[in-house]
C-alpha cells in the first residue's frame, strides 16, 4: 500500500491530495475535542501506522459497531450500561434510600472507582443553562420526583459541578424538593487534598472559608 505521511502529500491548500484520507480527517475532525491537527495525526496513524503501533481499522470499526449496538442508558438511573437496569440499580447490597444526583453518566465513574458510596444514582443528562437554552423541561426532573417517591428516598445528595450551571441546577432541585421529608445534601467544596493554600483561587478559598467546620 502507498503509505502517505511526512507532510509530503500536503498540497498548497493544506489538504491531502487524497480525497479518501481527507474524508477520514474531516470525519474525525467532527468528533468533540479533536481539532484538525489531531484528526490528521490520528487519520495518518490509522491509515499508515505499522501493525505493531496501531489498532487495525477492522477492530476499531467492530468495536464501535458493537458498542453502538449494546450500550444504553439505564432506564432507572441514566448511567451508561449494557445490562438494563444497570448493576448499581439491581444490586441488593446498595442502600436504596440514598440517591446521588449527577449531571452526566461519566460523573458516576469516580464514585464507583473510589468505592465508598453505597447508594444509587440519578443522572440528569445535563445542567440548567438559560444561556444555552437548557430549561427545566429539558431535564428529567419529573422522573427524579417519581423515583424519590417510589424508592422512599431518605437522602438526596447533589453532586454537580461547582459552576454557575451546577449552582443554578442545585438551587432548582432544592426548590423542587422543598417540603419533602428527606435530607438534601451537597458535596462540600474547598481546598483539594494536597493543595497549597497560597495557590488556591479566590472562589475556592471563599467557599472553603464559608463552609469551615469545627474540629
Ligand atoms: Zn441504573
Describe the overall structure.
With 215 residues, this protein is α/β, with parallel strands linked by helices. Among the domains are: 19-54, Orthogonal Bundle (Helicase, Ruva Protein, domain 3), CATH 1.10.8.420; 86-187, Dna Topoisomerase Vi A Subunit, Chain: A, domain 2, CATH 3.40.1360. It is 38% helix and 10% strand. The protein has helices spanning 19-29, 36-48, 57-70, 87-90, 108-114, 141-150, 164-176, 202-210; strands spanning 72-73, 80-81, 98-102, 120-123, 155-158, 183-186. The strands form 2 sheets. The protein has a 4-stranded parallel beta sheet, with no helix packed on it. Strands 1-2 form a two-stranded antiparallel sheet. Helix 5 links the parallel strand 3 and strand 4. Helix 1 packs across helix 2 (36-48). The longest helix has 14 residues, at 57-70. The protein is globular. The model has no long low-confidence stretch (mean pLDDT 90). The site of zinc ion has 8 residues, from helix 4.
The main sheet orders its strands as: 4-3-5-6
Bound molecules: zinc ion
Order of helices and strands: HHHEEHEHEHEHEH
CATH class of the domain at 86-187: Alpha Beta
Measured distance between first and last alpha carbons: 69 Å
> Any idea what the radius of gyration is?
23 Å
What is the makeup of the main sheet? 4 strands, parallel
The tally of strands reads: 6
Mean pLDDT: 90
Q: Unreliable runs, pLDDT <50, ≥5 residues?
A: none
Molecular shape: globular
Amino acid at each position: 500500500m502507498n503509505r502517505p505521511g511526512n507532510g509530503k502529500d500536503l498540497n498548497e491548500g493544506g489538504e491531502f491530495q487524497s480525497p479518501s484520507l481527507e474524508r477520514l480527517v474531516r470525519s474525525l475532525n467532527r468528533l468533540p475535542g479533536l481539532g484538525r491537527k489531531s484528526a490528521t495525526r490520528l487519520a495518518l496513524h490509522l491509515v499508515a501506522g505499522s501493525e505493531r503501533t496501531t489498532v487495525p481499522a477492522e477492530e476499531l470499526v467492530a468495536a464501535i459497531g458493537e458498542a453502538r449496538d449494546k450500550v444504553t442508558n439505564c432506564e432507572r438511573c441514566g448511567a451508561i450500561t449494557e445490562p438494563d437496569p444497570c448493576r448499581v440499580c439491581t444490586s441488593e447490597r446498595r442502600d436504596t434510600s440514598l440517591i446521588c444526583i449527577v449531571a452526566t453518566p461519566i460523573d458516576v465513574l469516580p464514585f464507583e472507582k473510589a468505592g465508598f458510596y453505597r447508594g444509587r444514582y440519578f443522572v440528569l443528562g445535563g445542567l440548567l443553562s438559560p444561556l444555552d437554552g437548557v430549561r427545566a423541561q429539558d431535564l428529567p426532573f419529573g422522573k427524579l420526583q417519581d423515583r424519590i417517591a417510589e424508592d422512599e428516598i431518605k437522602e438526596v445528595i447533589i453532586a454537580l459541578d461547582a459552576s454557575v450551571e451546577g449552582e443554578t441546577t442545585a438551587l432548582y432541585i432544592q426548590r423542587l424538593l422543598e417540603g419533602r421529608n428527606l435530607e438534601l445534601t451537597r458535596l462540600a467544596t474547598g481546598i483539594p487534598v494536597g493543595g497549597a493554600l497560597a495557590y488556591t483561587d479566590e472562589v475556592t478559598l471563599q467557599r472553603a472559608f464559608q463552609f469551615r467546620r469545627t474540629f
